[in-house]
Each structure stands twice: as structure tokens, then as C-alpha cells.
Amino acid sequence: MQVEQRGRRDAPQVDPDAGVTFVMPVLNERDYLRRAVETVLAQRVDGPSELILALAPSTDGTTELARQLAAEEPRIVLVDNPRADIPVGLNLAIRAGRYPTIVRVDAHSELEPEYTRRALATLDRVRAANVGGVMRADGRTPFQRAVARAYNSPIGLGGGAYHGGTQQGEAESAYLGVMRRAVLDEVGLFDETIRRGEDWELNLRIRRAGYRVWFDPELSVTYWPRESWQRLVRQFAATGRWRGELVRRFGRGNSLRFFAPPLLIVTILLAVAIGVLQATGVLQGGWAVAASVVYLPLAAYALLIVAVALGPGGGTGWRDKLWTAAVLPTMHLSWGWGFLRGVVGGAHDTVDTSRLGTRNTPLP
């Protein structure tokens, strides 16, 4: 992975017992919040710690649960995030924190027991400004497990290091991240105009300032994906659109792997157009035969999806394999379409609406 670096600077070290601030943006996470908080509070650190929950306006009882948890545990601090944007919530939580190391956590995830202790040791060892590990997706239902398999597969999300890398080293970005507060203060906090991909953009500024962003495969976080097809489509469409916005803003600072899903969309549209021209007789003879080459990459893609679904990565049993065969194109197509829209027209005020509904509240 090519990492842009200007000069070389070591991030400041801090005393082992100086304390850690965990920051967690929260929106409609009642089913996951308690367990996520428990794994944070169970982290062993030498000094004091605190967990700042940035509460967006939830509709499923999450805010009430958060208040209950805060009443039970003095280390939990609540801050309001009325705008509900993730980068805004993160900045509010960071500003409310008291300690020199920031650990970003997600309400839809669970930290391994030694996650923070090892991350702090890695920060000191390599003098990095940000350290991240592997996102290990898991699921509670057949659909969610299929999405998790796609997350954990190189074909699902393009093979980023934190989706299955095994070699530690400098990285383009970091999943969640354990960061030095002094570096954040220097380069600026999360860009509140970027609603998705805000971590990538922050790490870009960290690297441009000369600091290291480090990947450590021994760090592991369990992530729970979206629970329904509609929410998955909304999540990936919004994420893809913001990735397209980042390409508009930063161009070459994005990996080439991000262009595979939009290229698939373009190929499908071209194949449809050629198919119509062939069916109506506009394309005939040799021209029609030559134009049919556009179908080959789509056939190869379909065979790849079938091969992945039928292989070990497709799960066990026909039901798992069918879900895998359905989920992978869903992720690719929704992300790719969002990406094209973002590149052409920008992201504007696009938000991820996949968590705005609950089991008791219809999705808008």
C-alpha cells in the first residue's frame, strides 16, 4: 500500500498511567449498546479511563439506556449530539475528554479484552499517531452472517488491510483508531463536512503532517453489520457516495480498489444499452458480434460470485450460500452507484439513514 508521507515525525509519547478517553457516537443502538459499553469498561489500562457517549436523537430507547448505564457507572459521560452526524459526535466527545489518548469505539462493535493495552503498547513502540486493527464482522441472523462473511472477504470490500490483513506496518487509514490527542489538536479533529469516510480524511491529514498511521493485526474488534437488506443498501449507497465525494476533493489520495464497483455499474449500463440496440436491430452483423464482448466481464463477475458462494467463504449449507450470493452484489452495486453519484454530483448533505429506523419505528 502506498502511503503519502512528508518528512518523518514521531508522535509524542505519554506516561503509561496518563489515562485514556474512549469516544463513542450513538444513534438507535439499543440492541448493541450495553454489550459495546461493557467491552469498553472491561479494558485494562494502567491509568484512569472514561467513556464519552455522544448521543444523537434516537427513537428506540437508546438514550434512556445510555442514561441508565451512566447512572450505574461514573466513568461514563454523556454529551448531546443533536445533529446526529458521526464526525460531529466524535468531536464533541473528544473535546469533552480529559486524557491524552483517544480510543474511538463504535456502538455496533465489541472490543477484544486486551485491545487497548496492546494498542497503547504499539503506539509507544512505533511512535505512531494512530493505531488500528482488524474489523472482524459477525452476525446473529442468517442475513447478518452473510453480510459479515462479505465484510471479511477480500471480494466484499476490496481487500483493505483492516478487513483481513496479517502483516503489521504503516497504513493508509485505521479502523476506529487509538490516537494521540496532541496530534489531533495539531492537525484538527474530524472534518464535520464529511459525513462518511471521515476517518480516512483525518488519517490523510495525519500522514501529510508526517506522522505514522499503523496497522496491527493483533488488534481485533467485533463488528455487527446491518440487520436487513434495506438498511444494507442505504448504508452502502451513502458510503459509496461519500467515497465519490472524497475522490472529487482529493483525487489520487484514494485507492484504485474503490473504482471496481463503479466500473461494474458502468459495464452493466453499457451492456443494457448494447442489448437494446441488438434487440431492435440497430446493431447487426459483425458490429453486433463485436459489441457482445461487453457481456464477458459480467459473465466473469457472475461466475466469481457463484464460486465465492459455493466455496468455504460462502458459509455452510445452501441457505448460507444463497444469502452470500445475494449479499455480495447488493454491496457492490449499491456502493458503486453511490460512488458514481458522488463523483459526478458530490455528496452534498447525504446521510446514512440505515440506522434511523428500529423494529418499532418504520424506516422513513
Q: What is the correct CATH architecture of the largest domain?
A: Alpha-Beta Complex
CATH class of the largest domain: Alpha Beta
Question: What string, H for helix and E for strand, traces the elements in order?
Answer: EHEHEHEEHEHHEEHHEHHHHH
Low-confidence stretches: 358-364
Number of domains: 2
**Oligomeric form:** single chain
How many beta-strand elements? 9
| CATH homologous superfamily identity of the largest domain | Spore Coat Polysaccharide Biosynthesis Protein SpsA, Chain A
Helix content: 40-55%
Count of helix runs: 13
Strand content: 5-15%
Distance between the termini: 40 Å
Using the CA coordinates, give the radius of gyration: 22 Å
Structural class: alpha/beta
